[in-house]
Amino acid sequence: MPDFLTRRDGTWHFVRRVPVEFAEFDRRGIVRHSTKVRVANDRTGRRATRVADRLNSELEAHWRELAGNGCDEAIRTYDEARRRARSLGFEYLDNPQLLLAPWEKRVERLEAILANGLENDKGARTALLGTTQRPSILLSKLFDEYETTTKDETKNFSRNQLRVWRGGRRRVVGELVDLVGDKPIAELTHDDAIDYSEWWRERVVTGECTAKSANKSMGMLSRMLKEMSIRRRQNLPDIFKGLRLKGEVDNVRSPFEPSFIQNSLLADGALEGLNEDARLIIYVLADTGLRPSEALNLQPNAIHLDAPIPYVEILPDGRVLKTEDSKREIPLVGAALAAMKLRPSGFPHYRDRSASFSALVNKYFEGHGLRPTKQHSLYSLRHSFKDRLIAAEAPDSLIDSLMGHRTGKPKYGKGPSLELKLKFLSATAFRPPSRL
Fold this sequence. Notes:
3 domains; about 50% helix
């Protein structure tokens, strides 16, 4: 017989027991609905199954909504109980914890209720006796709760940064739900984490993905669960501890040879198939070493073409920089200076669209023989920039300053001046195409 269907008085009925994880929100125990399809007219239950599937989808959506709203209310109630306990001079203890405490601790709380005439104050009783249940958070609601509690971390993200941040975390939560079911996060076990790790391991073995991707996904889940353990007082174990996959290797990009950049990428007509903005951005990247996202998001106030030394500033304008050291000043020379003179206000068409821009350029490079190997990509221009500075015997501190690398070293002084940066960049600058 099809799932959730039973015959009753000659009609197919949808019948489903309320799952344990939703029982506290839906007290019916068993849910029954008539499909209004007569058994005599649908002997195999095919039509009734379609109705049952619709009813089941609506019911599960209803349960999820109840669980979400119930979770919010449970959190508020629990937090209020904790505040009330503190106002009465005690820390809140869950009732099971209180029962394990020395009897004097229990008596002390009972005496406080009697001494303050709080016998009929339900809020005071639940606060001091720990009878308000710790809120339960369903795994499917993990990301929503996590986002709510970490808004301070994402408040300065750009729209695209927020989209990417949300997308990855929603994805890993969905993967775990598909593997272990939608259960309260307090019921997640080390075995559940092993299941998720092994699911990724199989994909790594077949070459579908890398160990680095697997470890990054487990890291996101682990961080969310740790945050909920602290912020929502869930006392969760670290179920992903020790499950990182071995063999994690960074996909190291190869730098373009300077001669290839000058004679192929910067040759007259070499990038004619790209739109003008895309070509100019490539010229900027070649002579500044900027990350593509940094060049695309340059704002007019960060472009200084009329200064004694023309330069651009990398600032957290409407977005979060990769590292604190990413904030820096880069003199404009060679192809970069020529390109920025044509775009004194930056590249608004590609602002906050670094992924689509990189995909466009890498596809163009691939189709026009501009990728010497598979390890070469648009980002290789940044690697080449660093190699050229090393070849010019630039100091490490100056290279780090131009690249915006996190050094981990204490900061003293102002760092390399624009004049010093210009000295080395001028020695490594490319000749711009005769026709931009």
